[in-house]
């Protein structure tokens, strides 16, 4: 049975990033960090205020243009992450080859996302129906059922997101279709849920702390020289740079964890 070592993956990732930094970081900055920064700058003020202080009963309407921009940004980030995985999983591949491979496999990744969204929607509709039935019995029962179903749905989404964390490496490294990619990614993480959960939590915390610190420090320095607009722009760029660095290390580590979990007899990969 394959084993998964976070420590070994970290050592391999550090060595690989040090060797291939000139390929990895420009791709991460261009296709992962900057799209998110641009989307943030495009966000309407009412949405920015809501994200700063979320209120479930006062969610502002999302302008259609911003919704389309968000969708395009997500797809572009997926494309960038696939490119980074291609570079990490195929040492020696050029950036151009990685981009072409990523573009060819992007429809499969989009297909897996649609399947997951449909599955979540079905669960949500079923939960809503249960809530309606409970409301016919009593308001107290409906409130309790709604709370339990909400926590249950969130738990299912959280569990599935961890179990499918190796989906991108599977998509870029194999010729599998939508459903087979989902099954393979799910199978590779069997028995490693808590290990992967701990790894992702640590990476996200460190990334958030480092990004926030860089944004605050650089933003403050820029604000002293150029005012509030300069502070926001410089802080955003600093945060994007730190985010790109964190993304590179995280994705390369996931690529190494994927290789560790991958069955040794798998031959259905691009040559």
UniProtKB/TrEMBL annotation:
Keywords: Membrane, Transmembrane, Transmembrane helix. The keyword Transmembrane applies. The lineage of its organism: Bacteria, Pseudomonadati, Pseudomonadota, Alphaproteobacteria, Sphingomonadales. Pfam families: DUF7847 (PF25231). Residues 4-260 form the DUF7847 domain. InterPro entries: DUF7847. This is DUF7847 domain-containing protein. The chain crosses the membrane at residues 21-39, 66-87, 108-137, 143-171, 192-218, 230-252. It comes from the Bacteria.
């Amino acid at each position: 049975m394959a084993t998964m070592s976070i420590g070994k993956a970290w050592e391999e990732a550090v060595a690989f990033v040090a060797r291939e930094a000139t390929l990895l970081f420009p791709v991460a900055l261009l296709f992962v960090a900057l799209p998110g920064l641009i989307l943030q700058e495009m966000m309407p003020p009412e949405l920015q205020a809501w994200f700063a202080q979320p209120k479930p009963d006062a969610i502002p309407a999302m302008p259609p243009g911003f919704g389309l921009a968000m969708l395009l940004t997500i797809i572009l980030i997926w494309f960038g992450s696939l490119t980074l995985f291609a570079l990490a999983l195929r040492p020696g591949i050029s950036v151009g080859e990685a981009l072409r491979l990523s573009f060819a496999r992007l429809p499969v990744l989009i297909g897996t996302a649609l399947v997951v969204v449909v599955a979540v929607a079905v669960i949500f509709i079923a939960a809503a129906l249960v809530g309606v039935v409970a409301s016919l019995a009593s308001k107290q029962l409906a409130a309790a059922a709604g709370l339990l179903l909400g926590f249950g749905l969130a738990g299912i989404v959280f569990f599935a997101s961890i179990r499918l964390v190796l989906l991108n490496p599977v998509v870029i490294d194999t010729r599998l279709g939508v459903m087979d990619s989902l099954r393979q990614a799910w199978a590779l993480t069997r028995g490693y849920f808590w290990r992967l959960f701990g790894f992702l939590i640590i990476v996200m915390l460190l990334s958030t702390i480092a990004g926030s610190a860089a944004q605050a420090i650089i933003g403050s320095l820029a604000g002293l020289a150029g005012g509030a607009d300069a502070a926001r722009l410089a802080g955003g760029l600093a945060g994007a740079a730190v985010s790109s660095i964190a993304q590179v290390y995280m994705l390369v580590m996931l690529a190494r964890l994927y290789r560790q979990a991958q069955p040794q007899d798998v031959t259905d990969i691009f040559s």
